[in-house]
Amino acid sequence: MALNLRGVGVALVTPFTDGGQVDYPALTSLIEHITNGGVDYMIVLGTTGEPATMTAEEKHRVVRHCVENNPGNLPIIVGIGGNNTAEVIRTIQTFDLSGVSAILSVTPYYNKPNQNGLYAHFSAIFEASPLPVILYNVPGRTGVNMTAETTLKLAHAFPGKAIAVKEASGNLSQAAYILRDRPKGFFVLSGEDNLSLAMIAMGGDGVISVSANVFPDTFCCMIHAALAGNTHEAAPLNLSLHEVTDLLFAEGNPVGAKAALSIKGMIKNNLRLPLVPASDALIAKIRYQIDKYGL
To answer: Which of 35, 73, 253, 261 is the S-S candidate for 266 at Cβ 3.0 to 4.6 Å?
Structure first.
């Protein structure tokens, strides 16, 4: 059965103990939290999960833990990307992907390939991957924007392998071109929580969200209402989440999300260097929004 990505995917944070180790009991609780909140699938080892500071062994164990502690039997997507195409392919081919439905692969960062380079990079990944792949365009992090033309070229050239794009350019015009010219069955997902309602209004299929780690019930109600065409229900929920979502990213991701989850008693507010916990001022602002809107 083809993977259905319509709805809310959560870019899962990785909880850490005070000693800096992966906090597996907290990870189990977080998965239960998002499942009970109504999310449709989860992304493990996305940028929000801090994989850049995790060892290969930790990455494997975190994925296995999520596969084995998945009470809602949610589809699991694993983030595998990088700026060394050969290494990305080697990782995909050697990683234990049993129980995994797809791969999320980010555009190469730092070395800034042009559009031909991006097309060649992802073509090689599609040809090597045993699983379908979601393209991830996030120029604010990578320093390179994958244009609508390149995304569409890949989507049409690799049906069944290129199944979706997480479009986090913040450019709704670019997203509109992808939506207009995408092949049948290719999902267009917002990578910006506060633009997801607008993206859905243009015909988008949902979102891969950071906010849904913290506020899954409210966020999922908003997205599912929007997808059902109930804008009158979705709009006020979106507005109640708008400021706190901005705050989640004010000092970097997942800094704000981990602060908010710690306020709610879900995890310890621990990150791995070079990321550091949110400032006291930001924590106070997040707490105020949570209290104000009953989040």
So the answer is: 261
Q: Rounded to an integer, what distance in angstroms lies between the CA atom of residue 35 and that of residue 72?
A: 6
User: What does each C-alpha distance from 270 to 14, 17, 171, 288, 289 come to in angstroms?
Assistant: 10, 7, 32, 21, 21
Separation CA 239–CA 116 (nearest Å): 40
Q: Where are the alpha helices (DSSP H) in the chain?
A: 24-36, 56-68, 85-94, 115-128, 139-142, 148-157, 172-181, 196-201, 211-214, 216-227, 231-248, 255-263, 280-293
> Phi, psi (5° rounding) for residue 284?
-65, -40
CB-based contacts of 123, cutoff 8 Å, min separation 6: 154, 157, 158
Contact 264, 214 (CB under 8 A): yes
CB atoms closer than 10 angstroms to residue 115: 15
44: β partners: 78
Two structure tokens written together for 199: 């993206």
Residue 212 CA to residue 257 CA, distance in Å, equals 9
Q: How far is CA 169 from the centre of its chain?
A: 13
By annotation, the residues acting in catalysis are 136, 166
Backbone angles phi, psi at 104, to 5 degrees: -105, 120
pLDDT tens for 205-228 read 999 999 999 999 999 999 999 999
| Of the candidates 216, 57, 115, the residue with the CA atom closest to the CA atom of residue 207 | 216
CA 283/CA 226 separation, integer angstroms: 30
Q: What are the helix and strand counts (H, E) for the chain?
A: 13, 8
CB 211 within 8 A of CB 193: yes
- CA neighbor of 244 nearest in space, from 264, 272, 274, 273: 264
The residue whose two tokens read 């833990």 is: 65
The partner residues of 7 in beta bridges, in order of sequence, read 206
- Rounded CA-CA distance 131/110 in Å is 26
